[in-house]
Specification:
globular, 54% helix
Length: 452
């Protein structure tokens, strides 16, 4: 069964299952529970956090690529990395640095490409463009390196291609019914596992060279400003090469595909819903400088992005492994070693959570209007009903940064251009997933310049 069909198939079962939870019998006795019940999600992600971990199956599958980085580890190692990363994410200077990077990339690279395309009526794969754009952004933010993945020629760099391959091949390991298949291919260094080994070697060697160069740069000039995340980690005394390599690669992975996935579906939905597009354009046109406070006040755009990710979450499912026997709030018995999966994609489509109009792209479900001044106020849903950014102790550190980036990108693109999908995408593209979701076959569009 294809990844796309499996996501939808499991979602359909969640919809009709009592308490939105069911057991899935997998080959060779592997135990799995699928749930879309917010009470169960809160139980595994918060209330019984220590009993539900990444687990050995998950960490071993991704260890070649991610090592023991923050997204591929448990226990004390995770707590330490979380504490270190949390300190850096909460600084105003990092926020300012991210704003500068996004604005520079928009002005100097993305906008000129879209402007040129609008003049020639050339078809672009907008998903690919967004993936390249966000990859350049996150590499600059993570370790101050510009891969120039999004250039007028849009040639693939070795590092970027290796990162893409490592990501895709690692994620495909999860789809195999028998993990022994990839383990044997790895042992004999054949097929996809041979390419994975080559890709991981390229990524790690490149990252380590960047780290060594950055260390030397900081040693030679102690007054240099530590703006990117690598410099911040090194300057705060965290200089162990394996640790820094793993955590930086993890952050690149998290920031690269999730943002581009969210924006790909957002621009498709925007084209399908001209009323929403009109409201967003009003909000964009009311802003002058798009500084932090103005972007923060773009509540309708914020709601539209939240609504888009409800329907098309960047990470449609996530799993934890039970350390000990347990019972979920709905009475589901969980045996030690069982994989418990919360189905984010299904939860965004449940009438019991979102109403009978769940299929409608309606940003207003996230908003309340002030009766006095008529202004919108954003009303967040609890993170266990809407676990798009996870929840509990592992809630996404970069959530606010991601929204800030996405709103700046939407303002920069939608304010100047209309993104028009090719005719075959105007009904419904296929939603597929590797480690994060994608639009199957890309997102071919033409770009139309807006008349001032």
């Amino acid at each position: 069964m294809s990844g796309n069909r499996r996501i939808q198939w499991l979602s359909d079962i969640v919809q009709i299952a009592p308490s939105a939870t069911f057991h899935l019998d997998r080959p060779f006795g592997t135990r799995q529970i699928i749930t879309g019940n917010p009470s169960n999600v809160q139980h595994i992600l918060k209330n019984q956090f220590n009993n539900y971990q990444k687990g050995s199956r998950f960490t071993k599958t991704l260890s070649d690529f991610l090592g023991t980085g923050i997204f591929n580890t448990d226990g004390e190692n995770w707590k330490f990395q979380r504490r270190v990363a949390s300190h850096e994410f909460n600084t105003k200077s990092l926020r300012n640095f991210v704003e500068h990077i996004v604005d520079t990339e928009l002005t100097n690279r993305l906008i000129p490409i879209l402007n040129s395309s609008s003049q020639t009526n050339k078809t672009l794969d907008f998903q690919d463009i967004l993936q390249r754009f966000t990859f350049d952004n996150i590499c600059k933010i993570a370790f101050g390196f510009d891969p120039e993945y999004l250039t007028p020629s849009t040639n693939r760099t070795k590092f970027a291609q290796a990162f893409e391959d490592a990501n895709e091949i690692s994620s495909k390991r999860f789809r195999l019914v028998l993990p022994i298949i990839w383990k044997l291919k790895k042992r004999f260094n054949i097929g996809s596992e041979k390419r994975l080994r080559e890709a991981v070697k390229e990524v790690h060697e490149f990252a380590r060279k960047i780290i060594r160069d950055k260390k030397q740069e900081l040693q030679e000039n102690s007054n240099i400003q530590s703006e990117d995340m690598l410099s911040r980690f090194l300057s705060s005394g965290h200089s162990e090469e394996d640790f820094v390599t793993d955590i930086i690669i993890s952050f690149i992975l998290a920031g690269k595909d999730t943002t581009s996935a969210a924006l790909t579906w957002f621009f498709w939905l925007l084209w399908k819903n001209p009323r929403v597009e009109e409201e967003i354009l009003k909000e964009i046109n009311q802003s002058e400088s798009f500084d932090y406070n103005e972007v923060k006040e773009m509540v309708y755009t914020h709601a539209a992005l939240s609504e888009s990710m409800r329907l098309y979450p960047p990470v449609p499912m996530d799993s934890k492994e039970a350390v000990n026997d347990d019972v979920l709030p709905d009475g589901t018995i969980v045996e030690k070693g069982t994989m418990v999966t919360y189905h984010v994609y299904a939860m965004g489509r449940m009438p019991s959570l979102w109403g009978e109009d769940w299929a409608e792209f309606r940003p207003e479900r996230w908003l309340e209007k002030d009766g006095m001044n008529g202004k919108w106020t954003f009303v967040a849903r609890d993170s266990f009903t809407y676990p798009v950014f996870q929840a509990g102790p592992r809630v996404c550190l970069g959530k606010e940064m991601a929204f800030m980036q996405m709103k700046r990108i939407v303002a920069g693109i939608a304010g100047k251009f209309k993104v028009v999908p090719e005719s075959h995408l105007k009904e419904h593209p296929n939603f597929i997933s590797f480690l994060s979701s994608q639009m199957e076959g890309g997102f071919p569009v033409t770009i139309q310049k807006r008349v001032p």
